[in-house]
Design a protein that fits this description.
By secondary structure, the chain is mostly helical. The protein has helices at residues 4-25, 39-51, 53-62, 81-87, 91-99, 106-111, 115-124, 139-145, 149-157; strands at 71-72, 78-79. The longest helix is centred in the first third of the chain and has 22 residues, at 4-25. Strand 1 (71-72) and strand 2 form a beta hairpin. It has a two-stranded antiparallel ribbon with strand order 1-2. It has a single domain (39-157), classed as Serine Threonine Protein Phosphatase 5, Tetratricopeptide repeat, CATH 1.25.40.20.
Length: 161
Amino acid sequence: MTSRRNFITHLSALSLTTISMPILANTPAQDKRPDPIAVDKVKQFVSLGHSDLPGTRQMLEEMPSILQATYDWGNGDFETALGGASHMGRKDIAEFLIGKGSRMDIFTAAMMNNLDIVKAMFTAFPAIVNCKGPHGITLLMHAQKGEAAEVLAFLKSQNIK
């Protein structure tokens, strides 16, 4: 006769085996992720995004997967090519990258004088004004670099420095 304890122990072991088998079965070799992009290539692309539209365009044509790549400058200072273009006021590079599908954020919106996006984000999350972009660059500084008059006026009306 099987004791209650033995029954529960065997049931638990059977349940764990049954649960884990499908998990192991769903990891075929074709689900392997591609290798990361070389760090030196990411750094080059992000650096080009600061000031070199032809170089940015050429590198993206040669390596389309690099579009969303983020370079780690250290101590939590992450930056994309679009982030670099944004704090340098390079609307031409920002527009090119966004047109290719780069992920836009409030810093890019501020530099591009997109007041609707800045206001919507500020309204939904007022503390967002305390966020810093790459290298600790503020929202206000992004707007200044982009000579974004409407965004600058809004930020100043909110006493944002």
